[in-house]
Amino acid sequence: xxxxxxxxxxxxxxxxxxxxxxxxxxxxxxxxxxxxxxxxxxxxxxxxxxxxxxxxxxxxxxxxxxxxxxxxxxxxxxxxxxxxxxxxxxxxxxxxxxxxxxxxxxxxxxxxxxxxxxxxxxxxxxxxxxxxxxxxxxxxxxxxxxxxxxxxxxxxxxxxxxxxxxxxxxxxxxxxxxxxxxxx
Length: 184
Prior knowledge:
Radius of gyration: 17 Å
Number of domains: 2
Low-confidence stretches: none
Structural class: alpha+beta
Distance between the termini: 50 Å
Order of helices and strands: EHEHEEEEHEHEEEEEE
Strand content: 35-45%
Number of helices: 4
Shape: globular
Helix content: 10-25%
Mean pLDDT: 86
């Protein structure tokens, strides 16, 4: 059986690098989708030409004695749309949106989403963290995640670096050693 092409997780490809910084007519919208509609909404937004980011992570499960790898949304039911009012209306017209809101701290959303993308691209195992608590802010000073900022928490018998998407009060974490970070 042929392998399906990977789902598009960001459109356009430079959204988090250039477009979100230089485009002043658009703003970020957090789209809370109907159940299990994240990828379908992303496909429709791509077809409409509406910029979006849908963080996807690989998940391996056993089905019928076979290992099946699929890409699942990192934040269940959330898609991040970067658009103007007309694109916001087009997004609502897809009938896949439960509700949509603008983040309260819009100046940090591009940075937070870049951090999440960096963690996904690094290939390290991620754990979704909900309802984040304040802690010591640190910056990674080691290897592929150099300059990434986050909060250190102790969970599951080890220290974890939590990278937060603050307005959702959710984030992702990775196992990290103390020598890999420095206080901010």
